[in-house]
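[job 4471] stage=fold_predict status=RUNNING
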Amino acid sequence: MVQAFTELEQKGLEVFVTSASDQFYGVKNTLPSEVFGALGSFFSRNPKDFRAHLLDAILGRISGYESEGGEENLRKLAAGEFSPPHLAILSGLAKSQAFFRDFYGKYSHKSIANTVWIPMVGTHVSQLFARELAYDQLAFFIEQSTRYVDFDKSKVQKDPRVMASTVAAIYEQSLEALLGANKETTQAVIEHFKQQIPFDKWLERQDIKVRAEEKAKQEVKYTRELRAKAFDVSRYLLPQAIQTNIAWIVDARSLEFDIAAWKGHPLTELQEAAAAIERNAGQIAPSLLKYTGKNPYYADKLAGYDFKERKLRGDLPFRPGSSHFGKGVDILEYNADGLNSVLAHVLKRHEMGGTFRECRERIATMQFREKLAMLERIVANRERTDEKLETDEEFDLVKMTVEIRSDVGAIRDLRRHQKNDRSEPLLTLASGYSTPATIQEMHPEVQRRFREAMERAAEGEARVARQFPFEAQYLVPMAANHTLTMSLGMDQLQYLVWTRSTPQGHFSYRQDAINLAEAAAKVQPWLLGYEQYPEGKSFAEVYANAPLKKLLRVQMEETDLHQ
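[job 4471] inference complete, writing structure tokens
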């Protein structure tokens, strides 16, 4: 249910957003982009709607940034008596729109649309919507975190076609089983971690600043970290139907594609989202969103599997996979001459000039120690905050294709690396599920509750899928085994490993990042400064003794609770 605002609040909010009542709405350019980003970050850790945070800002009641006169500001906004100073820059809007109409509509210069970015917000959207949005490589988004928001208090997506069918009851019962187990597991895990890391032990490991604070503040921080660590475990029981809030920015050209494709999406939620996004984004860029009609070609691609005939359209044979698998990374394709290629690309840009072939032929004549010296020079001045290996993309010109076997929750986080080309199958429990190590350490009753919820969800998904194969994905929990195939360059590879191996990250995708680093280093040992990968040793030992650690950086240290 969308939050209701008073008439006065609606009028004040609609100075900045396209609607104070719609599920989807645009953020007008009356709101500075910095403010949009700040308010978006608020609801990544808070279940309130973006508009509610915006209203707090207007009324001066954001914690730590309180101010007086908020009610009067709201009244003036609603009455049109107060306009933000930056509204003056919009005086040429009509001429700009005429220019866009001439060149975009008449000549189809879509590059114009790439320069116009549209901020959007979606409230009460499912994880399946968030997944679809992630595949737009030019959509940058932030959503509620499963670590900081109690999703037990969220609503769930109830597909209208399913709810009008004979499987409506099993659909609801499956969701109830998962959410009930999620609530109970969260509390059990909090108590489990309290015993493992009691307050006094936790406090001993804090820095001087925290130890000097009042005990009440220390206890708040301790409780927050306990809940975050518990949510990381209990999120395995969250179904894809769980609703979230998401804010994103996207260029008008990409948004046109999304709308046209999603209008033909097999999920009703995505179809309705496309219509609502078109309606609200059109208020921000009415001259740009022109080619948004349902695209039958993309609709066929999105729903291209004929489940009744059990084959892909085009008569490609298909048999659903049913084997269970565990965590791991498989290298599907890689450049066997990766080191020579990387150095040739770098040299061509920085030193030699000429053609790539000439550069590679020269590099190939060098000894490995000479090549290692070049790598060491490239990263010699690199600091922890230097994310990229090069300011351009020489390292990303050398690609690797990998398949990561993990759980749905971890894949949810890994697919956000949008510079990588990604693909994944439909979500299902047919490939089994992962049980967190913490659950395996706990009382057998907690384990039984977890197992029964998974079994109930698997049964419900299988029954719903007979009629509604796409909608059945709403019942799939984060614990379900899943795969993500990615093609990525060496710069993106090291970036993913570094950012996802942080000790404060989720333990599941952190293990995926370490697995990826190990698998990549085995076929490209130069990433760690080796000419040959050391056999018969653990990756921890291989990395500890690596001759080069500033290129493929892995965060192997541990921490007790999340900061």
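[job 4471] summary: The radius of gyration is 26 Å.
[job 4471] exit 0
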